[in-house]
Amino acid sequence: MLQTKSEDEPMVTKKKSKIPCLSLSSFLPALEAVTAAVTMPGGGGVPPGTPSAKPKEKQRTKVVVALYPFKAIESGDLSLEKGAEYEVIDDSQEHWWKVKDENGSVGYIPSNYVKEKETIGLQKYEWYVGEMSRQRAESVLKQEDKEGCFVVRNSSTKGMYTLSLYTKVNHPQTKHYHIKQNIRGEFYLSDKHCCSSIPELINYHKHNSGGLCCRLKATPCDRPAPPTAGLSHDKWEIDPGELVLLEELGAGQFGVVRRGRWRGRTDTAVKMMKEGTMSEDDFIDEAKVMTKLQHQNLVQLYGVCSKHRPIYIVTEYMRHGSLFNYLRRTAPDQLGPAVLLDMCIQVCKGMAYLERHNYIHRDLAARNCLVGDENVVKVADFGLARYVLDDQYTSSGGTKFPIKWAPPEVLNYTRFSSKSDVWAFGVLMWEVFTCGKVPYGRMKNSEVVEMVQRGQVLEKPKGCLNEIYNVMKACWRHAPEERPSFRLLKEELAGVAQSVLAD
C-alpha cells in the first residue's frame, strides 16, 4: 500500500540547497525529451532504452510430454501417444487440460497423464518409478520374476535415487543400490564406473555388471496408467447403458458392488445403492465435487448413474479387494513389518490429502480401504457415511455404528472431524499389524465404550515395533486437539520407515 503524508504531520523545514541556480535554458533539452516521450504513439512516458523501460515479456509456450497413452472416446477429448509432445492451450482446470498435438488437433487430456517437458527429468524412462517404496518395488520385481529386472526409484534421502535389482543367483531376491555422486557431480554405483548422468549409468550397467549382482536386463511390463478424474473432461453423469455389469465383488452397508466395464474398455467397480439408504439428491450434488478429488491413495470416483433407481456409484476397480480381506488371507510372514508399515503410510497419504481439502471420512477402517496392483492401497467410501439415512448406522447407539473405530467425542456427541478420522486410523494401523484381527476381540460394544471412556487403549500387536505402536497411541489421545494431524503422522511414519526399516 502506498503511504501518503497525513495532513496532521508537522511540516519539515528544508535546509537551503547549496546547488547553484540553473538557467531555464539548461532545462529545455530534458523537458523536450520528457514531452516527446509522453506524446509518442503508444504512450509510455519513459523513452525506450532508458534503464527503467521494461520490454513486454513474451508468454512462454507450455509443452508437455505424454507419460501414458490415452484413448479419447468422448467428444472434445484428445488421444495421447506415449512420449509425444503437446502444446498446452488451457490449463485452468486442474485435472483436464486443453492441448494441441503436432497435427493441430485440439482437445482435452487428463493432466496426470503428462509432464511438462522442462521438468520431466527421469520420468520419461520406463525404468523410473518415482515415489514407489522399497516394499512395493520388491513386490513388482518379484511378480515379474526375471533375472536382471530393475527399477530406479526416489530414495528416502531427498534428492537421491536407489536402484532395485532382482536376481535369482543363489536364491530369488531384490538387491537395493544407492546411486551416488562424486565431487565432480558424476553418478556411480561402483566408484570405478562413473557417468555424467543417471541414464548413461543405467545404459552402462545394461552391458556390464560392474560390481552389481548381475547386469540390468529388463524393466517390468508397462505399468498401469493412473485413473482419470472422471471418465472425460466434463463427465460425471454416466449412462448405465454404457456399463456392462460383471461378477459381484461384495456387498456392504450401501448395497451390492459389481465389477463393470465402461464402453468395453475401462474396468470399474459399480456400487448399486439400496433404495432408501441415503439422501440421494444431496449425494448427487456432492458427487460432482468428489470426482475432482484425485490422489494416488484414494479410490477414484468416476461418476454416478442418477437417472434411474437404484443409483449407481462408479469408481476405479481395485483387483485385490478390501484391505481387511487381503490381510486375512495373506500369511503374516509373507508380508513382514516393512510391507505392513508401507500400507499404513499409503492410507495416511490419502487421508492427509482429504484433510487438506477439509473432507472427513467418518468410517475409516481396513474394510473401507482397497488393494490394487503393485500392493497399492487406497482409501474408499470417503464421505459416504454423511448421506446415510439408516439410524442404526449413523447413531452411536445403533447396532451398525462402527463403535470400535470411534473416539470419545463421537461416542458422546457424534462429533466428527479430521481428528476423529485420526483415531480411526490408529485402529486401522492395529488391524494391519495384526493382519486383520477384530479390534477389542469379542468385547461387546457397551464394554468397548466403557474402555474408551476410561482411557484404555488396544494392546500392542505381537511383533509390532515400539516406534510403530507409539504412533498408534498418539492417535488414541483422549482430547482430539492432542492427536497429531495426518500431515504430521505421514512425516512420523516416514521417519520410522527410514530409521528402523532401512531403505
Automatic annotation (TrEMBL):
Write the record's keywords in alphabetical order, separated by commas.
ATP-binding, Kinase, Nucleotide-binding, Phosphoprotein, SH2 domain, SH3 domain, Transferase, Tyrosine-protein kinase
Q: Which major enzyme category is it?
A: transferase
Source organism of the structure: Vanessa tameamea
Q: Where does ATP bind?
A: 271
Q: Which residues form the SH2 domain?
A: 127-220
SMART domains, from UniProt? SH2, SH3, TyrKc
Q: What residue stretches are annotated with the Protein kinase domain? A: 243-501
Q: Where is the SH3 domain?
A: 59-119
Per its record, the protein catalyses: L-tyrosyl-[protein] + ATP = O-phospho-L-tyrosyl-[protein] + ADP + H(+)
One family name in Pfam for this protein: PK_Tyr_Ser-Thr
Q: Report the PROSITE patterns cross-referenced here.
A: PROTEIN_KINASE_ATP, PROTEIN_KINASE_DOM, PROTEIN_KINASE_TYR, SH2, SH3
Under the heading CDD domains, the entry gives: SH2_Tec_family, SH3_Tec_like
The record's Gene Ontology biological-process terms are: actin cytoskeleton organization; cell development; morphogenesis of an epithelium; open tracheal system development; salivary gland morphogenesis
What's an example of a GO molecular-function annotation for this chain?
ATP binding
Q: Which InterPro entries match?
A: Kinase-like_dom_sf, Non-receptor_tyrosine_kinases, Prot_kinase_dom, Protein_kinase_ATP_BS, Ser-Thr/Tyr_kinase_cat_dom, SH2, SH2_dom_sf, SH3-like_dom_sf
Q: Which Gene3D superfamilies match?
A: SH2 domain (3.30.505.10), SH3 Domains (2.30.30.40), Transferase(Phosphotransferase) domain 1 (1.10.510.10)
Question: What's the name of the protein?
Answer: Tyrosine-protein kinase
Give the E.C. number(s): 2.7.10.2
What is this organism's lineage?
A: Eukaryota, Metazoa, Ecdysozoa, Arthropoda, Hexapoda
Belongs to which family? Belongs to the protein kinase superfamily. Tyr protein kinase family.
Q: Which domain of life is it from?
A: Eukaryota
